[in-house]
Description:
Helix content is 33%, strand content 18%. The protein has helices at residues 2-23, 52-65, 73-86, 88-97, 100-109, 180-194, 201-210, 232-254, 280-295, 324-330, 393-403, 430-438, 500-508, and strands at 116-126, 130-139, 145-152, 261-267, 301-304, 309-311, 314-316, 349-352, 363-364, 370-371, 376-380, 408-411, 441-449, 461-465, 472-479, 486-494. Strands 8-5-11-12-4-13-14-15-16 form a 9-stranded mixed beta sheet. A 3-stranded antiparallel beta sheet has the order 1-2-3. Helix 6 (180-194) runs antiparallel to helix 7 (201-210) and helix 8 crosses helix 9. The radius of gyration is 28 Å and the shape is elongated.
Amino acid sequence: MTTIIAILFFAASMANVLLMVSSFPLFHPPANKKSIIANIREPQSRNFQKQVFVSSLMASNAADEEICTDLTADQLDFTMGYLNKHHSDLLTKFSLAFTELGREMKRKNGLSGGSFMVESAKMVHITREYMSIDVTVNERGKDKMLRRVTIDLDSDLHPSASQREYSVVKEKTPRCSENAVDDVMRRLIRLCQIVKQPEVTGKLIQLGIQIGGKATGRIEENLYLNNVPHNRLVRKYFYDMACRATLDAVILCSEGKLSNRMQITCLFPELNTAMDAYRVGTLLEMARALAITLAEQNLRVRVCVQGSMGVGIFTAIPKQLSGVATLLQRMDWQSGEGEENEGMVGTYVNFGGVGKEHVVNAGVDRRGNKIEQDDVFIIICPQSMVGQETSIYGPLSEMVAAAGDRPVILLNPDLTDKISSGGQQSVRGRSERIAFQNSFKSIYHFQCTYISGTSYFPIFGALGKFGPTEPWIAYHRRDRVNNGGEIYIPIVAGEDRPESEVVMKAAEI
């Protein structure tokens, strides 16, 4: 009898366990993402499929479904307290540039200057949509008045505002649905750019990091980029950032939200060809990391390096790319039998040159075998040379046209003209070449900056854009006291690349 009861108890326990397991939600690609790209395929016979991206996709899916909330009470108090204490003049400019108050001030001061003045401004509330400011107005012959104005965070200049006093920024900041702090700060940054207060924008990035943003624009401390060769962890830090940005860009491209013409610029010292610290192995490692990241999502990637250009005995390849094509194929891809990425090279990662003949489309070969088309193209350091028939514009533009709407990613490109004999790369056709160069949108950018006229030491700061929808941010590198390390401080931010004069002025404050 005891044995029968024990068997029944065990069966009931197993039934409960099975019920619990069956209730766990299974992973499905987000419905609002076209499975990374429209023609993504199911995994075939290979064992390099990773699980790391499953968790990131689930996290992004949860973020997409997260309810859009406003700032918490603590975040609201801290934000208003900081702006009221340190940037009351900025709030005054907001009230004059984006509300009827500016028109009224101009009209009343038109006949008698100084008859209508704004003494102070204090923020009393802010949400993801608008902010409320109490403005103290001093009008001649009247008592001081307290007037409340409301400003939409996506406001354009008031029609009465003079464009000589302000900048025109028509492009709206993309919505950041997963984090209210970043959403509010990026909209305030746009308004700062309109009222010509770029030196405040870096402080808003810092404020967002402090009060609970997703650390947009934060650079790790103690990278010590002046020390070469770099630590392996430093290199991996940049590889990982570039890979995340690339994957996000491919997803956006598949959804029709981003152009298929993309570029990655990563110029820390080991990737800067103008420095003696340049290391071709770092360039190859980054290209490999990008290709593997995309291949892990069942995308067929073609990694391309341009071949020789020129005429006759004046045929050559850029010094930066000398031997890169051979090294790229001989480096360790962990693609052999029994290795981590078994079967990847030759199936999901292939190699090629620059030109329309290197674009593989779906079809059938002469033996009736199916040919799989390339999904993504990564072109390493495309550039022109001095000489005749040495412009990269021709073969690269033909290749981009042949790729259609498939992503074409340029890694550290240099598409500027190299003036040559015979009038090549000169005035003729320059507008078309410049338009082609500008058609590639930056999806990731990191570049060390230096004081003009000095050597490449010490590093002044950096310029970064860490994703296709992230803002441009300029940084100032500062040393901690008592050799406590180094830190990169955001000083200027915006949706467009900041000018060097603006960066230098902000660094002096």
